[in-house]
Amino acid sequence: MDTIIITDLEVFYTVGVPDAERLQPQRLLLTLSMESDFTAAAKNDDISRAIDYSAVCRRLRDLGKERTWKLIERLAVEVAELILTEFGPVRVTVEVRKFIMTETRSVCARVTRERASVL
């Protein structure tokens, strides 16, 4: 399987368990690994047969305008499901990194999801 990786996409989402943490959007970094077969896209040099990573980045930057989350775990799962549904990779791994705790460099949640097999 072939892979497209987007590393450290900077987004600003409203996320956090305490109400005070959700008063304003905070900086997060998203890293995505999207597995797909590049054969058709590479053969014809055709973006319509590839995962448009620019469109993925635009969609994820806009996602934070629509809602809020308490848990980065839920955010990671929702991003993974969105990528599978809207962009069609076979498998996606999503990492959400936040910088709220001063005693750590960052805190991260990582999930991997894959498309259900067609019977």
CATH topology (fold) name: GTP Cyclohydrolase I, domain 2
> Span between N and C termini?
21 Å
Integer tally of domains: 1
Q: Total number of helical segments?
A: 3
Sheet/helix structural class: alpha+beta
The helicity comes to: 25-40%
- The 3D shape can be described as elongated
Features:
119 residues, alpha+beta, GTP Cyclohydrolase I, domain 2, five-stranded mixed beta sheet, 3 helices, 28% helix, elongated
Could you walk me through the main structural features you see in this protein, from its secondary elements to its overall organization?
The radius of gyration is 15 Å and the shape is elongated. The protein has 119 residues and is an alpha+beta fold. It has a five-stranded mixed sheet with strand order 3-1-2-4-5. The longest helix is centred in the C-terminal third of the chain and has 16 residues, at 72-87. The chain has one domain: GTP Cyclohydrolase I, domain 2 (2-Layer Sandwich). The chain contains three helices and five strands.
Blueprint of the fold:
Elements: E1 2-15, E2 26-36, H1 39-44, H2 53-63, E3 68-69, H3 72-87, E4 91-98, E5 107-114
Parallel strand pairs: 1-3
Antiparallel strand pairs: 1-2, 2-4, 4-5
Short overview:
This protein is α+β, with helices and mostly antiparallel strands and 119 residues long.
